[in-house]
Amino acid sequence: MSDSFTADVTESVDAPPVVDTDEPRRQASSIEMQGLHKRFGADTVALDGVDLTIEAGEFFTLLGPSGCGKTTLLRILAGLEDADAGELSIGGRTITEVPPHQRSVNTVFQSYALFPHLSVRDNLAFGLKMRGLPAAERDARVARIAEFIKLGDLVDRRVEQLSGGQRQRIALARALVNEPDVLLLDEPLSALDAGLRSQLQVELLRVQKRLGMTFVFVTHDQQEAMVMSDRIAVLNGGIIQQVGPPRDVYERPVNAFVARFMGHDNLFAITARQGNRLTTTLGELQAESPGAGDLLLIRPETLDLLAGDVTGVNHLPARVTERLYRGSHAEYCLAIGDTTLQATLNNRGRHLPEVGDRVTVVVAPEDLVTLSE
Amino acid sequence: MRKRTLKRGLTGFWWLTLTFLYLPLVVVVLFSFNASNSAATFTGVSLRWYKALLGNEQILSAFGNTLILAICSSVIALCIGCLIGYGMYRHRHRKLGWLIVLIYLPIVLPDIVFGISEMAFFVQIHRLTGLLQPGLLTMIISHVTFQIPFVALIVYSRFVGLDPTLFEAAKDLYATPVKRVVHFMLPTIKPALISAFFLSFTLSVDDFVISFFTAGPESATLPIYIWGAIKKGVSPEINAIAALMIGAVAIAAILSLTMSRRRQV
């Protein structure tokens, strides 16, 4: 895949490749953060020492609850906020002190921030105009991005005539048209309804893959983060908790915070261990290669339910207390002694146990994960 | 049935109020076209008083003074008030209570107190330095002082109504500080600036009390001229001036209103 925006645009419309010698053939840029600290006022710590490397061409997501520091980190990348301490470089160039209007970084804002006094076309051309590009080239680039994002006749509308989803795409195009080293996205989909949101997730992902541009995406939605990202950094209290590909973060969370934030509820205290045998509040379980830590994570979708009492390794007798039928799958609440366990069963035409049924919960030893609090 | 009666009563009250407000103006406009110089009986339509206005040099000079005063003071107040409005917006998170009160005090202060203070101030300055002899310059200065709070308030409320992220978007899209002012802030608040200008202009044309205390012998404005003229009795010429002023103020008010309507978009 080419790193050049121009080449991909022409590709996308199936036209013969245009040789555009004015276009800088720019490589995607990596981002390096070292020891970033940021405080607001006397006792609000937004970032408490962030070291992070984002690879060139990566779709990287900063994930965390509100107030975790993810937006502050994004704003520091944009230059809209200054770090109290630490170093920031993009594409090998230190830009800690560079003001936002001199950074080759553009942002898609949560509120879209389209200029109300300008037409859609002038909004798109704003960045190019500020950089002093001649009008002819501005028009050409705006036309190209409009084609690429498939804006159609939106370009000739007024901003106030646009719907939320349309504004979102204009905001994306307004940032992309500048061909920045890095594109920052601050919860750009959070104001949209669910259907449009998943549609735009796919579209955004396609755009990023096609351009090979480095995207840094901020969200508090773990589903969205998993769908979109090459890698995710989970933040809490201004500290990075875990960095890794979505599967790592979801299946092997390093601590209870990450596990809970990724949506896991099945966490059980390990009271004793003997080799691979763990004693937990659920009973005795066999794990394949348990790591350190005194919490056991069981993902609901790794569980199987057998009818009646069956004995074997990692077979636990349980009673169904609640069932939520969701069509493609069913969610179960199970009582094992005094403890509640959640399970998800795929609906593959098999028998789905009813509330009140006695069942046996089965979990494979390799699906058990230990982690620390 | 009762509801309908109430509704009719209220509609009647509305028309009564309008009549109360506008009938005197209608009378003045009507008598400005009176053929005779009687203020009591209307004898026929004529433009003789408007023609008389054109031949009256005192009135023409007063008219000129009024225009110069209104335009100069409005332009200056617009520049200063705009900066103050932006400053208030930028520092809106700080506790500026007392400062805001200081800026708005001229709005609530009685004109007569304001006028006397301005006069006393200019007299002292003149005594000490020989500058600021009462005249158009002192009038412009005092008009600017009472116009500034209105401009600042209008500009401030326009900024407060904006999405604060827009300022960041302008920075993010490579706009230098100067370009941010030229390509973002001024175009965005343009409707507010236009309506602030018209409001200042109207306030200045309208003002008698403050002008009266700060004017010099050569710088009488229309309101001052009228006040002086009616001491000799009401002339139909005065009606003609009044009619013209009503027209001018109405036009300015309508323009200001349409500008602020458009700004809502």
UniProtKB/TrEMBL annotation, chain A:
Keywords, ordered alphabetically: ATP-binding, Nucleotide-binding, Transport
A GO molecular-function annotation: ATP binding
InterPro entries attached to this UniProt entry: AAA+_ATPase, ABC_SmlMolc_Importer, ABC_transporter-like_ATP-bd, ABC_transporter-like_CS, Mo/tungstate-bd_C_term_dom, P-loop_NTPase, Transp-assoc_OB_typ2
Protein known as: Spermidine/putrescine transport system ATP-binding protein
Gene source species: Halomonas korlensis
Cross-referenced PANTHER family: SPERMIDINE/PUTRESCINE IMPORT ATP-BINDING PROTEIN POTA (PTHR42781), SPERMIDINE_PUTRESCINE IMPORT ATP-BINDING PROTEIN POTA (PTHR42781:SF4)
PROSITE patterns given in the database record: ABC_TRANSPORTER_1 (PS00211), ABC_TRANSPORTER_2 (PS50893)
Chain intervals for the UniProt region annotation (Disordered): 1-25
Residues annotated as domain ABC transporter: 31-262
Pfam families per UniProt: ABC_tran, TOBE_2
A single GO cellular-component term on record: ATP-binding cassette (ABC) transporter complex
Entry annotated with the keyword Nucleotide-binding: yes
Automatic annotation (TrEMBL), chain B:
Record keyword Transport present: yes
Signal sequence, start to end: none
Gene Ontology CC terms: plasma membrane
GO annotation terms (biological process): transmembrane transport
This protein's record includes keyword Transmembrane helix: yes
Compartment(s) where it occurs, according to its Swiss-Prot or TrEMBL record: Cell membrane
Membrane-traversing stretches: 12-33, 67-89, 96-116, 136-160, 181-202, 240-259
UniProt keyword terms in alphabetical order: Cell membrane, Membrane, Transmembrane, Transmembrane helix, Transport
CDD domains: TM_PBP2 (cd06261)
Main location: membrane
Domain ABC transmembrane type-1 span(s) in chain numbering: 63-259
Gene3D superfamilies, sorted: MetI-like (1.10.3720.10)
UniProt topology in membrane: Multi-pass membrane protein
Family classification: Belongs to the binding-protein-dependent transport system permease family. CysTW subfamily.
PANTHER family per record: PUTRESCINE TRANSPORT SYSTEM PERMEASE PROTEIN POTI
Name assigned to this protein: Spermidine/putrescine transport system permease protein
